[in-house]
Amino acid sequence: MGDCGLEAEKSKEAVGREAAMLVQSGMRLGLGTGSTVAHFLLSLSERIENGGLTDILGVPSSIWTEKRALELGIPLTSLAENPVLDLTIDGADEVDPNMNLVKGLGGALLREKIIAQASRRLAIMVDESKLVENLGTKSPVPVEVVPFEWDIHLGFIDSMQADAKLRVTSEGNTLVTDNGNFILDCFFEDGLQYPEEFEQRLASRAGIVESGLFIQMATEVLVGKVNGVVSTLYPKHGDL
After folding, report:
1. Which of 27, 103, 120, 176 is the most buried (most CB within 10 A)?
2. Among 96, 102, 109, 95, which residue's Cα sits nearest to residue 32?
3. CA–CA dist 92, 95 (Å, integer)
4. pLDDT at 240
């Protein structure tokens, strides 16, 4: 791992550790998915093991998160048993100045959004490279679709000035989500200018399950820097 990779890991470790300090005893948590969440889960498990946290239950947003949480001794529950969560901790692929997000490069966007919507707070962990002026600048916007006639959505998405591509694995096979669906990654030449409108049009189309746009959902964003310092961003207008 090169210097940039080491710095990125240090940043993820710092922000994961800081996010774990947001958790209080008795909380019902949403547990996100991804490489930064991996550091958060480790720090959370250490606090539980050391006796710093008691009566913690988490709802995992992916099969990977469920497996890792169980390995670390983090007790799990479900939304059926705990329909309102106190706090969800997750990562993001992009964050704009209004704290809107692009999520889903890890493929768990649908479950992540279900859990986020059930949460009183959504704390997002990123490094500085994930901060953008417009969503869709550095990362594609993932869109989860049912496998049936999935390719009919390509032209529809292209009509909204996006280049949609079916996501495949490193072996060249179609990626299948934990829900048995496919993902179309939507690329924008100059970023996504009107994310709310884009999301609304996607939501109106049969066969499109969900997008990786998380609009006005984050309550705080923890930003890890290469020197290990973590800063926290909050909504500008206090309307979340």
Report:
1. 103
2. 109
3. 7
4. 42
13 is catalytic: no
Q: How far is the CA of 180 from the CAs of 71, 214, 220, in angstroms?
A: 24, 21, 31
The amino acid that residue 177 corresponds to is T
Which DSSP letter does residue 173 get?
Answer: P
Architecture, CATH, for domain 141-209: 2-Layer Sandwich (3.30)
- The amino acid sitting at 82 is N
The answer to whether 192 and 135 have CB atoms below 8 angstroms apart is: yes
Phi, psi of 115 (to 5 degrees): -70, -40
Mean pLDDT of successive 10-residue segments in the chain (240 residues)? 68 94 98 97 97 97 98 98 98 97 97 98 96 97 98 97 97 98 97 95 97 98 89 72
What is the third-level CATH fold of 3-92+99-128+216-224?
A: Rossmann fold (3.40.50)
Please check whether residue 125 is in contact with residue 91, taking contact to mean a CB–CB distance below 8 angstroms.
yes
Please tell me the predicted confidence (pLDDT) of residue 239: 46
Q: Catalytic residue, from 66, 94, 112, 220: name it.
A: 112
End-to-end CA distance of the chain: 39
Paired with 89 in beta bridges are: 31, 123
